[in-house]
């Protein structure tokens, strides 16, 4: 009962998380944009306050002061040290006489190389077309322009220009992250449901199987006491073997979603055991299917979980047999080692898989068979990838010729 309450609380917290994310994230995003806007306003205020200061000084100048000399000194001492963007000072005829933050030697304009002069004039034309020019006059009422100040893009202007793009990127990232969180939580909940279903299935299998084993042992004792029928005893042994197998299957379901401890295991023996199991049951099929196993990993021990590897191999071999329901043929299993990896290949002569389905067949619910839930290959991929850090894929397939599935497991 307590575990049920705990589970409900966990689900409630996970359902609440997206709402908190979007509410808190929207608030943080809004605050960040307000702070960014205020920062830009302060920067712009600092940029433009130079102009009224310069005009105030012009108006208060004595009549006998050389204006061009004053302008030059003012820009060099008051403006230039505070700027990090291109700036060009030009006379009334728009001929540059000083510049900053432009990679051109500080010389008289007429002494510059032809290329440098063209470059400066090109900048003047560009800034003028952009309206990035300040005409300087002796007073506000005068029509006579004494000098021009051309300037490039300031840092605050650049930040202001990219602001809409920055906002768009932040909003898109925020929404995409929110969608990812929602889908991740949904997938987590689906996984929890499947894990819970698997564990509950294992639990439900356990009790009746224990009872059946007990009843089977009792039946064996009764038969042995009255008349020992060898044929009947063989049937009882088969029953016991299948019941123990069902117990193992229940145990495998119980491992889904659990922490698995991988132990050094003889993989060759595991594969051989699975192959032997199917070879004993081949006579029950109406068509003739041969299963063979070629191994080059005898004696090699790999860290793995034997039950889960058997489960994977059984699913793959069953798929191969289903694909050969209407055909005679062979299922060839091979295992070899290469560069600290073990390769297991299961090749059949069944109906094949279209190339467009190579990856899709490992997704839950996807199947090329007329019946079934499409969970076998999905389960196999989860066992190999998540529990054994390996890979599983369709190595090759041809319609009506067969399919080869390859498993790769690291040796360490």
Note the topology.
Elements: H1 2-48, H2 50-59, H3 67-79, E1 87-91, E2 96-100, H4 114-129, E3 133-137, E4 145-151, H5 155-226, H6 230-255, E5 263-266, H7 267-281, E6 289-295, E7 301-304, H8 306-323, E8 329-338, E9 341-347, H9 376-388, E10 391-398, E11 402-410
Parallel strand pairs: 6-8
Antiparallel strand pairs: 1-2, 1-4, 3-4, 5-7, 8-9, 9-11, 10-11
Helix pairs in contact: 1-5, 5-6, 7-8, 8-9
Query: What structural class do helix, strand and pairing data support?
Result: alpha+beta
Beta strand %: 15-25%
Strand order of the largest sheet: 6-8-9-11-10
Level-2 CATH architecture of the domain at 259-410: 2-Layer Sandwich
Average of the residue pLDDT scores: 78
Polypeptide structure, described:
The chain is an alpha+beta fold. β10 and β11 form a beta hairpin. Among the domains are: 49-153, no CATH class; 259-410, Histidine kinase-like ATPase, C-terminal domain (Heat Shock Protein 90), CATH 3.30.565.10. The longest helix is centred in the middle third of the chain and has 72 residues, at 155-226. The protein has nine helices and eleven strands. It has a five-stranded mixed β-sheet, with helices on one face.
Short descriptors:
412 residues, alpha+beta, Heat Shock Protein 90, 4-stranded antiparallel beta sheet, 9 helices, 11 strands, 17% strand, disordered N terminus
In short:
The protein is of the alpha+beta class and 412 residues long. Among the domains are: 49-153, no CATH class; 259-410, Histidine kinase-like ATPase, C-terminal domain (Heat Shock Protein 90).
């Amino acid at each position: 009962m307590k575990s049920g309450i705990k589970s409900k609380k966990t689900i409630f917290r996970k359902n609440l998380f997206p709402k908190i994310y979007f509410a808190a994230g929207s608030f943080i995003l809004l605050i960040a944009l307000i702070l960014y806007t205020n920062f830009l306003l302060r920067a712009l205020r600092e940029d433009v306050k130079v102009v009224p200061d310069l005009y105030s000084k012009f108006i208060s100048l004595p009549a006998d002061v050389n204006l061009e000399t004053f302008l030059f000194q003012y820009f060099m001492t008051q403006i230039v040290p505070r700027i990090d963007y291109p700036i060009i000072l030009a006379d009334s005829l728009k001929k540059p006489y000083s510049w900053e933050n432009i990679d051109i030697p500080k010389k008289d304009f007429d002494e510059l190389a032809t290329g440098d002069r063209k470059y400066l004039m090109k900048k003047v034309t560009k800034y003028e077309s952009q309206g990035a020019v300040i005409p300087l006059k002796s007073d506000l009422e005068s029509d006579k322009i004494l000098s021009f100040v051309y300037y490039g893009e300031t840092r605050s202007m650049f930040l202001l220009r990219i602001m809409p793009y920055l906002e768009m990127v932040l909003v898109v990232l925020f929404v995409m992250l929110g969608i990812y969180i929602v889908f991740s939580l949904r997938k987590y909940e689906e996984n929890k449901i499947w894990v819970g279903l698997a564990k509950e299935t294992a639990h439900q299998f356990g009790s009746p199987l224990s009872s059946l084993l007990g009843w089977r042992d009792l039946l064996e004792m009764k038969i042995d006491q009255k008349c020992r029928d060898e044929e009947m005893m063989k049937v009882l042994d088969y029953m016991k073997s299948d019941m123990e197998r069902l117990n193992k299957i229940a145990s495998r379901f119980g491992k889904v979603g659990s922490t698995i401890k991988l132990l050094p295991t003889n993989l060759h023996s595991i594969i051989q055991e699975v192959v032997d199991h199917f070879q004993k049951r081949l006579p029950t099929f109406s068509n003739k299917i041969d299963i063979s196993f070629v191994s080059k990993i005898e004696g090699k021990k790999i860290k793995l979980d034997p039950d889960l590897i058997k489960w994977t191999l059984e699913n793959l071999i069953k798929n191969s047999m289903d694909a050969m329901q209407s055909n005679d043929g062979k299922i060839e299993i091979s295992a070899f080692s290469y560069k600290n990896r073990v390769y297991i290949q299961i090749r059949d002569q069944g109906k094949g898989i279209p190339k467009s389905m190579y990856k899709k067949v490992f997704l839950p619910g996807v199947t090329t068979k007329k019946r079934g839930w499409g969970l076998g290959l999905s389960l196999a991929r989860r066992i190999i990838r998540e529990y054994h850090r390996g890979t599983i894929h369709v190595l090759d397939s041809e319609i009506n010729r067969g399919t080869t599935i390859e498993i790769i497991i690291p040796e360490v």
